[in-house]
Write a structure and sequence with these properties.
This protein has 345 residues and is α+β, with helices and mostly antiparallel strands. The chain is built from eleven helices and 16 strands. α1 crosses α6, α5 packs antiparallel against α6 and α10 runs antiparallel to α11. The chain is globular and about 55 Å long. 32% of the residues are buried.
């Protein structure tokens, strides 16, 4: 009887969670997968994903439930904030980075390229308040240069709780972004910021010196260029908005990139060896995806991929790992926008 009760309760929670995902997806204009196990999309220019994900490898592979909200701009700090477990507390007591707030230093471990900038970020009162609010209900919080993430014990099974999670993630992301805008650019990017400012002016884009970044419109579409901190140092990321006019669940990634939170659907082959070797393509609507990935669009995507790691979804075309050299940026930006236009044709 006990086993039956536990099984019935688990099944009820899964059904309730799936219904909550569908209701929240309808309210926020998001996509929900066909099994009701995840919801994803864009909320006020930030990418959202909430649902189940497999972590680990082999016999250690486990199913986990996570909520992830992307930041509008990479922070460029090499930041990692995560809960401090007992082993880490003992092992790293003498050499841990501290942000100077006892409540945070006692609970989290911090990593970043420059201590003063990480301290300035978490010294912001709005960041502290939003982090405390989120962690009160969902204590396993992780923040990086690119997203805010929480790990859940189980899927939220009511619309109210799921909305509360999304709202709390949004408040923390907004507070982090606002605080970051008042912190100077990393030391290693000062010369990049100086070089990018006249380029932004020539392109008619707004310059953001703290990151550095430049944003605005080109050829009638939103574009963003920002510095990004990766494992191999700093590089540039270029983005252009896409208007495909329909929800395809498109996910285009380099073949070498492992699946992540945003991965959906089955691999879609285009029948062109060079293209199929270069990219993994997934989507809800394989025929619609193939139609968008026409021969001219494939040629443009392969050309653009020579400059960096290319990604695309229903709303954004992105190329990562572009060299910071400002001289090449206008030409790559022009290619990026023309590629977006080819995908929309």
């Amino acid at each position: 009887m006990g086993v039956l009760f536990v099984g019935a309760r688990r099944a009820w929670r899964q059904l309730a969670a799936a219904e909550a995902y569908r209701d929240v997806a309808r309210h926020l204009g998001l996509l929900v997968d066909t099994r009701g196990l995840s919801v994803q999309g864009t909320v006020r220019e930030r990418r959202l994903w909430i649902g189940q994900v497999m972590v680990g490898y082999g016999s250690e592979r486990r199913r986990r439930v996570r909520g992830v909200l992307g930041l509008r701009r990479p922070l460029g700090l090499g930041l990692l904030m995560r809960p401090l477990n007992t082993r880490a507390r003992l092992r790293r007591r003498s050499r841990r980075m501290r942000v100077g707030m006892a409540a945070l230093d006692k609970r989290y471990e911090f990593h970043g390229d420059e201590v003063d900038r990480v301290q300035a970020l978490f010294g912001d009162e709005a960041v502290q308040a939003a982090l405390a609010e989120l962690a009160t209900r969902w204590p396993r919080v992780l923040i990086t240069d690119h997203f805010v993430r929480v790990s859940l014990l189980r899927p939220e099974s009511t619309v109210e709780d799921l909305h509360a999670l999304v709202s709390a993630l949004e408040r923390l992301a907004a507070a982090v972004e606002d605080a970051r805008s008042r912190i100077p650019a990393p030391t290693r990017l000062r010369s990049t910021a100086e070089a990018w400012e006249p380029i932004a002016a020539a392109l008619g884009l707004a310059f953001e010196p703290s990151l550095p970044a430049m944003a605005g419109e080109r050829d009638g579409r939103a574009v963003l260029l920002s510095a990004r901190r990766g494992a191999d140092g700093y590089s540039a990321t270029l983005q252009a908005s896409l208007r495909l006019g329909e929800e395809l669940g498109l996910q285009l990634r380099p073949q070498v990139e492992p699946d992540g939170y945003w991965s959906v659907g089955q691999d879609i082959q285009l029948g062109e060896p060079a293209f199929d070797r270069a990219f993994v393509v997934k989507g809800w609507d394989p025929d619609g995806v193939r139609e968008r990935l026409s021969a001219p669009a494939r040629l443009k995507l392969l050309e653009l991929a020579q400059y960096g790691a290319l990604q695309a979804d229903d709303g954004i075309l992105t190329v990562h790992d572009v060299p910071l050299d400002g001289l090449a940026i206008p030409a790559i930006l022009e290619l990026l926008t023309s590629t977006a236009a080819a995908l929309e044709a």
